[in-house]
Amino acid sequence: MSDDLKKGCEGYSEDLAELALGVLTGRDRALTLSHVESCPRCAEELEQLARVADTVVQVAPESEPPVGFEVRLFERMGVADVRRHRFRRSHWIPVSVAAAAAALALGLGLGLSSSPSPTATAQAHHSGAVSGDLVENGRPVGRVAAFGGSKPWMSMTLADSSARGTVNCVVVTDDGVTHHVGTFVARQGYGAWIAPLHVNPEDVRTAEVVSPSGTVIATATLG
Amino acid sequence: MRQSRVAEGELSDEGLLAGMAVGEQAAVVTFTRRYQRRVFGLAYSMTGDAGVAEDVAQEAMIRVWRHAPVFDPRRGSVASWVLTITRNLAIDALRLRRAVPTDPDDFAASVMRSNEHNPEDSVHRGDVRHTVRTALEVLPDEQRRAVVLAAIYGRTALEISESEGIPLGTAKTRIRTALIRLRAAVEPIEGVSDER
Predict the structure, then answer these.
(1) What is the pTM of this model?
(2) Which end of chain B has less neighbouring CB within 10 Å, N or C?
(3) Residue B106's closest CA among A121, A157, A19, A208?
(4) Domains in chain B, please, with CATH?
(5) Residue A20: its pLDDT value, please?
(6) Which CATH architecture best describes the domain A129-221?
(7) Top-confidence residue, A76 or A130
(8) Which is nearest to A122 in space by CA: B67, B28, B131, B65?
(9) For testing the chain A interface, which of B1, B2, B4, B8 should be mutated: the one with the most A CBs within 10 Å?
């Protein structure tokens, strides 16, 4: 008897959430997918959870791509005369695009907005988070983002840093006061954490990764 | 020719995708500039490595460009589609870098899932970011950590259990509970319901 038959729907309920988030791996992933294929109820549950998972990524902090990102991308796409697009100050596009959009709108029942789309409008404004690169000896080794609201929180990622084992995360506010955020574990220089933030994110000047002995390993200036 | 152009700000994301689909380069440029900070930001958040994040972001934008002709706006928002593509690519990059052993069957399973859950099946239009952020705020801290670590940082339940110092089952439960609570919050605007 396979594991699939042994578990039943209840046995897969929690794996469905991980599958929807794209983080279920290996044998569990294969078994869960196999079950979903033969279970309409779990397939429906997976679909709904996946829709929610797709929305959560939208709160990820924005970040300016490296210099040249756009040029390299357009070269791959074969977009000609990048410079013209790049330096053209006019915010206009050919009518053929509008026509194509109008055709899409007519065919699919969607309106061509007369103002920037909600998505575009949101992008034009600050995402609501402050963020910054974690820098160690002049080298970027991660990212920090702080989110406001009724229950502020912050996230931190470390990659290829010298941090090992237990480290502390602190933030320094504009008044110079240092606030301890949490204690985390870095594995061979890598790690990702989320923690409640007990100060206003807008007041945070820097975030630091600090060793247990008090040595500052990496610092991020938030803005 | 008079009125041969329309202001780019007047075009929705769907309109720009339509322009990309017919090979309009100006649409490609405008769309890229509208989304590159979000795409790179997500990739950078997940990988923590600017080089890897650029590779992920570039590949994501290339895929969006190539698949623009088949995007179906009735099934979800452009933003969700683009960011889901980015997230999936970043998760793949994380797995490669961590050298996590995978079952050979998983390759087939990945294909199956791609067919089952099209990333286009996501959300309707609207600034869902505010709604999601608000919904995250009201979650208990431990649930918010779990779901954000999994959704945005690509952490598995096992990794979360280790970093949080909790049993694996507890990590799984937190992820699932958080996702279900978020579903209740975003359902009214996202159409996440049994009626779909």
Answers:
(1) 0.63
(2) N
(3) A19
(4) 9-125 (1.10.1740.10), 127-196 (1.10.10.10)
(5) 92
(6) Sandwich (2.60)
(7) A76
(8) B131
(9) B8
Q: Which DSSP letter does residue A61 get?
A: P
Q: Look at B102 and A25 and tell me if their CB atoms are within 8 Å.
A: yes
pLDDT value for A115: 30
- Tell me: pLDDT of A62 over 50: yes
Size of interface A-B (CB pairs under 8 A): 370
What pLDDT is attached to residue B97? 61
Q: What whole-number distance in Å separates Cα of residue B105 and Cα of residue B87?
A: 22
Q: Which residues of B touch A64 (CB under 8 A)?
A: 37, 40
Where exactly are the structural domains of chain A?
3-59, 69-123, 129-221
- Confidence check: pLDDT of B54 > 80: yes
Q: How far apart are CA A68 and CA A196, in angstroms?
A: 36
Contacts of A142 in chain B (CB under 8 A): 48
Nearest to B11 among A25, A98, A195 (CB): A98
Instruction: Give residue-wise pLDDT tens across range B87-127.
Output: 989 988 887 665 443 343 333 333 233 333 333 333 333 46
Find out whether A66 and B145 touch, Cβ atoms under 8 Å. Answer: no
Q: Residue A106 above 60 pLDDT?
A: no
Mutation target among B17, B29, B36, B173 for the A interface, most CBs of A within 10 A: B29
Q: Is the ipTM of this complex over 0.95?
A: no
